[in-house]
Specification:
It is a single chain. Strand 2 and strand 3 form a beta hairpin. The two termini are 27 Å apart. The model has no long low-confidence stretch (mean pLDDT 85). Strands 1-2-3 form a 3-stranded antiparallel sheet, covered by helices on one side. The protein is an alpha+beta fold.
């Protein structure tokens, strides 16, 4: 899906399970559970440290007084994830972009 390009994804479900991924040319370069940016994985988890920091996450220490981990403000955490996506792609997610974009969706059938 990301052949020749970069794709970012942020998932959050009703149980507050979340995952941020950055995939480049088909390879997962960075993945972590916001706001725990120091517990990151992928083929180049340290390549985005500056972008992670600029977005407001602490890429060094999950046990310290992390700004976003210490707050229950879901909007601040979500805003930081969107800022990270913008830092990594250069695409600013505006309300107009979200309203005017075309979305591709699919349903996977249950098996068994």
């Amino acid at each position: 899906m990301s052949a020749g390009t970069r794709l970012v994804s942020h998932f959050r479900n009703v149980n507050a399970v979340k995952r941020f991924c950055c995939v480049e040319d088909g390879e997962i370069r960075l993945t972590f559970e916001p706001p725990f940016a120091s517990d990151r994985y992928g083929s180049d988890p340290d390549g985005a440290v500056d972008a992670i920091r600029r977005a407001g996450f602490d890429p060094e220490d999950n046990d310290g007084p992390e700004r976003l981990a210490a707050t229950d403000d879901v909007a601040a955490r979500t805003g930081a994830v969107f800022a990270l996506a913008e830092n990594l792609t250069g695409v600013k997610l505006t309300a107009q972009l979200l309203v005017e974009s075309t979305y591709l969706c699919a349903v996977a059938p249950r098996t068994g």
